[in-house]
Amino acid sequence: MTNPSRPGRLSVEQYVAGTLARDRYVLSRAITLVESQLPADQALAAQVIGAVLPHTGRGIRLGITGVPGVGKSTFIEAFGHLVVAQGHRLAVLAVDPTSQVSGGSILGDKTRMETLSRHPEAYIRPSPAGSSLGGVSRKTREALLLCEAAGFDVVVVETVGVGQSETAVSQMTDFFLLLMLAGAGDELQGIKKGIMEMADAVAINKADGENLAKAKTARVEYQNALHLFPPAPTGWQPPVLTCSAATGQGLPQIWETVQQHHQQLAANGWLAQKRQAQNLAWLHDLIRQRLEGQFYQHPAVQHQLPTLQQAVVQGQMHAATAAQALLQAFAGE
Length: 333
Ligand SMILES: Nc1nc2c(ncn2[C@@H]2O[C@H](COP(=O)(O)OP(=O)(O)O)[C@@H](O)[C@H]2O)c(=O)[nH]1
Ligand SMILES: [Mg+2]
Prior knowledge:
Blueprint: H1 12-20, H2 24-35, H3 39-52, E1 60-65, H4 72-85, E2 90-95, H5 97-102, H6 114-117, E3 122-125, H7 133-149, E4 154-159, H8 165-170, E5 175-180, H9 193-198, E6 201-204, H10 212-227, E7 240-242, H11 251-267, H12 270-297, H13 299-313, H14 319-330
Parallel strand pairs: 1-4, 1-5, 2-3, 2-4, 5-6, 6-7
Helix pairs in contact: 1-2, 1-3, 2-3, 2-7, 13-14
This protein binds guanosine-5'-diphosphate and magnesium ion.
């Protein structure tokens, strides 16, 4: 099964038919295709995504974030088992640029989600190695659509709670879950106010053993903090819950919350509106990425950039003047 004009690749029809037939092997190859940097692969990938698009959008898209060590992987493994036990098919995509740096070697890291990855109704796809954040998020959105087309009705996107990747993930999911620890302090957890504001629910993890009392106190504190934010136009009030990914306590309530949110936003029209706005943002994202790529690869820009950059750094030229000159060079003026 190969593509005669592209060795090592399938044809558009084969990618599409295999994905829709829920062939995991073809799904994995399709995700590999969308992750490829090669222009020929990207053109092929765009055709595949275009063809599967009508078969997407029926599931729940769930973003999960939290600092390394909060228990995301442990949580997703336990949560995933709970969700598939209820007859759902669950896919997990990881957006974690930092895991490339550490090689996933943080103490006790559970990145592989071993028992869940062996479940026939679950599919786990780690981040592509060595990719930039912008690249990861663009590819993750396409991978998410492929998973939906392959019949996964719950897609979890995991990201690390320290930077821009949250915004990217919240831009492609319906529900954004923030995992936190009790008593660690907001600064220590690197959680910015903006990330709290994006959350559709906050769950204090590791609410077990000696941590339980602290977790309950933290729950009240975070609930009070969330009340200070203006109410969301969707009418959804983000709850603060406690859970233990290790014991499974509190996970059914979180799944219940995710489903309630989905029903409420589907009923009041906000789910459709949210996804429309996300599609529009996606379009502008792609335009920005393409333009930027073309700009920096333009021979005239490459020729002039070092000199102008130097002049700006030295304070000899206003940045706006340099930008103007470069844009004129790019436009061939
Ligand atoms: N006590 C307790 N430990 C947990 C819980 N969840 C995760 N851990 C532990 O915390 C460490 C980090 O978990 P991991 O899932 O790799 O965190 P991640 O970096 O956010 O993906 C591991 O040693 C886990 O066993 C929990 O609910 N309770
Ligand atoms: Mg992890």
